Amino acid sequence: MKNFFIAIVTFAFLLSCTSESTKKEALNTKKVNDFAIIIHGGAGTILKKNLSDEKEAAYKAKLEEAITVGHTILKNGGTSQEAVVKTIQVMEESPLFNAGKGAVFTHEETNELDASFMDGKTLNAGAVAGVTNVKSPIELAVKIMTDSDHVMLSGKGASIFAKEKGLEIVDPSYFFTDRRFESLKRIKNKNKTELDHDDKKAAFYDADIKNAKFGTVGCVALDKNGNIAAGTSTGGMTNKRWGRIGDAPIIGSGTYANNLTCGVSSTGWGEYFIRSQVAYDISAQMEYQQKSLKEATSNVIQDKLTKLGGTGGVVALDKNGNMSFEFNTAGMYRASMDEKGNLVVKIYKE
Ligand code: ASP
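Above: the input record for the complex with aspartic acid. Below: its predicted structure, written as tokens.
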């Protein structure tokens, strides 16, 4: 009886070792890039017929400029954290995107900015919601991670913290752009609330205005030390009110990074991304189900999110430097660059 018991225990132990090693095996697929970087500038009903050649060229040029900044940092041995922050800052400073300068307007005609950052090595994270006068919300998210005991700060308190830490404070008018203000006026005139991306099923969907405002920005990078970092920055959705916060500053929804699996940055209809825990779900599927990055991003966006009625997409990168763009909208401003400097810049579905 005793021998039988020992045999059972030994068998169970060997079984657990095998499944453990299979798991490690799955997560230890071949390295394809020593370092790599992937970005998005928002997803939505981005159709060629609605974008002039000049606009298209301007978006592509800005995406290339941003990703090149991050890639250069990584190539020179810099950290994924630095690459993500500097890359996102290029897009925050561009009025083309709905982040930093060029952010969409709230119902009260202000710009309230959200951002988050996660470090895949330590699983540390920082996030900010609803700030109105900090020039670089992504920088503030990182500062909250490194210099406070908290993960998330919001509104006035976040601004005070930013000031105390010496971050650049700007007059709220810095974020103003005619284009976004016009969008708000159009939407208000129609007495609608509009999401900053496509959703044909949305109660507030409006064909006239749907193409006006895309552009949350995000970045995921893998550095030469195998560290993954991810960040996201946004103005949220046009005509938002009551202090509405989307997924972008929610760790696990808008942003997630874990060196064992992957890094993810999301863009889309935030409420659905929060409910679906999009970014963490992708990592969890890789960790617990040994799915590849492609399988996990496709399952979460094309299957789970879509079934729920959510729209948008993600950029993601795994620990071996595999990269994935996944979205269920007509387009997503996006770019990637591998260790050799091969650049992909795309807007529409292809
Ligand atoms: N996810 C953002 C939000 O809901 C908006 C977007 O990515 O377009 O605030």
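Notes for the reader.
The first strand starts at residue 36 and ends at 44.
Residues 42, 196-197, 216, 234, 236-237, 246-248, 267-270 surround aspartic acid (CB under 6 Å).
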